[in-house]
Amino acid sequence: MTSAKDSILNFVSKLPKDAKVGIRVYGHKGTGSDADKALSCSSSELVYPISNYNAGEFQAALNKFSPSGWTPIGLALREAKNDLSSFDGANNTNIVYLVSDGIDTCDDQPIEAAKELYSSNISPIINVIGFDVDSKGQNQLREIASATEGIYDTVTNEGELQEELEKLSNMTEQWKEWLEQGKQKIESNKVANSLEIFSYITDEGSKETIERIKIGTILFELHEDGRMNDKSYKYLMTKNTEYHKWIQEQIDQFEKELKALNETSYSQAIKALEDKYITNTQ
């Protein structure tokens, strides 16, 4: 915790002069014992209200707490939404840094809380830093970042934490990375949709072929057995061909519509992403 405090102090001291900062801590009351779980899981405090940076006050705020209890990440993110309620995303560039040394231990739905914060009118980037976190904790923290299109990184010591924070201090570069990650995700979704369309259309086409062949075979057998005259056989075979030709045309048309919808959704998602990037980097 001492290392984390030193790194955070150094980080905020290098932010632009007009940047506003705040510190919210969580799970800092009680101990890690079962008896203190309710107390610890309900504790989250804004020790430095969102305002311009003041070195002395910020240092004092950092010194107010020490690591002690459980880890209510969901609670902290919901409270962060309240902290930023007056800083709407249309007029402010909001960035939340979630620093944790482990998995949420309070069963307070941190991923859902992150989504609620991200989808609000605050529209923040939510970057997650795992500080000396085990693999289970990394998976959850990475999922939080992924759910909010944020950036996740893990560090193991003070030097790495300092390096990570310095890398994130350049907001323009941070938004660029956010944009690139967002584009990769949208591109991945487009490819996944294309594969699903291909699979679905192929399956429908296969059904059409199988049905047409089965009906043709039944008609052929009936005709060969003398249970259907030539005129009826020719008429029904023609109808079978015409009907399944119509089915294939419907399948082809639906494929075009699905592909067009996928392309439109992709274009709209990219435009929305780029618009948000431009808004926050102008």
Give an overview of the whole structure:
The strands form two sheets. A three-stranded parallel β-sheet has the order 3-4-5. The chain is elongated, with a radius of gyration of 29 Å. The chain starts with a helix and ends with a helix. The chain has helices at residues 2-13, 37-41, 55-62, 73-83, 110-119, 135-147, 158-169, 171-224, 230-281; strands at residues 20-26, 44-52, 95-100, 125-131, 152-155. The chain has 282 residues and is mostly helical. Helix 4 (73-83) packs parallel to helix 5, helix 5 runs parallel beside helix 6 and helix 8 (171-224) packs antiparallel against helix 9 (230-281). It has two domains: 2-169, von Willebrand factor, type A domain (Rossmann fold), CATH 3.40.50; 181-281. Helix 5 links the parallel strand 3 (95-100) and strand 4. It has nine helices and five strands, in the order αβαβααβαβαβααα.
SSE map:
Blueprint: H1 2-13, E1 20-26, H2 37-41, E2 44-52, H3 55-62, H4 73-83, E3 95-100, H5 110-119, E4 125-131, H6 135-147, E5 152-155, H7 158-169, H8 171-224, H9 230-281
Parallel strand pairs: 3-4, 4-5
Antiparallel strand pairs: 1-2
Number of strands: 5
Low-confidence stretches: none
Number of domains: 2
Oligomer: single chain
Assess the beta-strand content as a share of residues: 5-15%
What's this model, at a glance?
With 282 residues, this protein is mainly alpha-helical. It has helices at 2-13, 37-41, 55-62, 73-83, 110-119, 135-147, 158-169, 171-224, 230-281; strands spanning 20-26, 44-52, 95-100, 125-131, 152-155. The protein has a three-stranded parallel sheet with strand order 3-4-5. A two-stranded antiparallel sheet has the order 1-2.
